[in-house]
Amino acid sequence: xxxxxxxxxxxxxxxxxxxxxxxxxxxxxxxxxxxxxxxxxxxxxxxxxxxxxxxxxxxxxxxxxxxxxxxxxxxxxxxxxxxxxxxxxxxxxxxxxxxxxxxxxxxxxxxxxxxxxxxxxxxxxxxxxxxxxxxxxxxxxxxxxxxxxxxxxxxxxxxxxxxxxxxxxxxxxxxxxxxxxxxxxxxxxxxxxxxxxxxxxxxxxxxxxxxxxxxxxxxxxxxxxxxxxxxxxxxxxxxxxxxxxxxxxxxxxxxxxxxxxxxxxxxxxxxxxxxxxxxxxxxxxxxxxxxxxxxxxxxxxxxxxxxxxxxxxxxxxxxxxxxxxxxxxxxxxxxxxxxxxxxxxxxxxxxxxxxxxxxxxxxxxxxxxxxxxxxxxxxxxxxxxxxxxxxxxxxxxxxxxxxxxxxxxxxxxxxxxxxxxxxxxxxxxxxxxxxxxxxxxxxxxxxxxxxxxxxxxxxxxxxxxxxxxxxxxxxxxxxxxxxxxxxxxxxxxxxxxxxxxxxxxxxxxxxxxxxxxxxxxxxxxxxxxxxxxxxxxxxxxx
RNA sequence: GCGGGUGUAGCUCAGUGGUAGAGCGUCACGUUGCCAACGUGAAUGUCGUGAGUUCGAAUCUCAUCACCCGCUCCA
Length: 542
Prior knowledge:
- This protein is α+β, with helices and mostly antiparallel strands.
- It is 32% helix and 24% strand.
- The chain is globular and about 100 Å long.
């Protein structure tokens, strides 16, 4: 630190290096590719696995100490990608994911149909028009027009200006006082030509509301009909809620506790963009933390900070990470509070883009599944019962405190976004070195830990290098390379992000030492050949 | 989904209607004395894909796919 500012890094060069060195390839490339899908090459897979393993270890195997000084308890899970389609009705994804959209064919703008509000008026020319404005709710639209009626102006919170055409149209138009503001969704087909879009220059440019379902559909079994329709999961979280009862019943967990899962999710994104940042198939690392409702603010705060610390532990520079609290109007249907951990990607810089969301989901999901499945999701908290009894509370008071549907705090991060962050973070241009760039991974996450080279292929050096390599390969991912010049080999390792290279030279044969070449400083030191393994173990453990 | 741009070797690109090219990289052999050295040799392309125009298309036309930029979207 300070590390190179992501704003100065070229995404094109990062993508090119990823392909050249086997981190990420376009999916189905020999058939011309397929938009929104990527394949992870040998080094990319190693990098992804390293991040995943670190997350699993820090989340499930050795979770942190909680705010009360007690170690937190989190169990692992691996649920199915395809579930009963009723799951997605209960979770709100089938409804919420298929918001109908409206396009303005003139201005090419697109709106959510339920955010478009129309008001009927008689124009100066005697023709009726429906003036459409885009606002989040009917109340806001109502208030906007009331503001207009009293002041002759629409308020500032309208998204964008009214077009000149609309202004001209409503100037002198007579609004029907008794006609309510209505949703565009309810406008009939023949009335649609009368609708004057907020940004349009003339009426009739808005399309009918159209469905955009972001979930991938498939069919279970050989018969393709409505009853066999199923969905690929759009998030791993629901698999956890589905098994909440199973885990409580079988794992001797008690509140508060977490269930963690890593796996693929699928979203049929409208516009996959920015390399692997938004792809249609991606991998998530999600943990659902179940706790008593009155404890939830404490845990929300805890996980918010804990997750930031975790990203910093990957070697991501503090200055490239930040929190962003969600405004009320962008909160998801399930969420009470949500904070994003964001990274300064080269394509968002100087702005930031989402990396992980820590959401307070309340009891939304479990309540939904309780209603839809008719299975009880209530938890009986015996510790609270005992506490209540000791405090001499009444039976009703004790019940009220010890029976509840748990609240959920959800740190949900993108594993594949984590890969992207480490790729961007590691990518370090350096005009002074032959490769012009090196990948500055923290050694722990580097796909290849070490290179082992004979300085030249003679005088017994290859044999010594081979022996060193044979020992190391049992513990570390490393590469033996005797081809071409030593400089070329260092350069290759720089691009792969290999932190250390051990070179056997003439002195090795007499004094049993090798040189260690450090990727970042390019400096060398000599260590005893017997110490190489300890040296590596030390550096990688850091 | 809309508008604009781009697609030629692994990469960067040249090639405007007449035999498909360069540099780098890759591989082999030789050489080598610490940062993409050198020599010799080799492999690599239905010019994104599919049609059309033409005696002849990488080149012109249309369609399509992918990528990039801007909208839009992102529970």
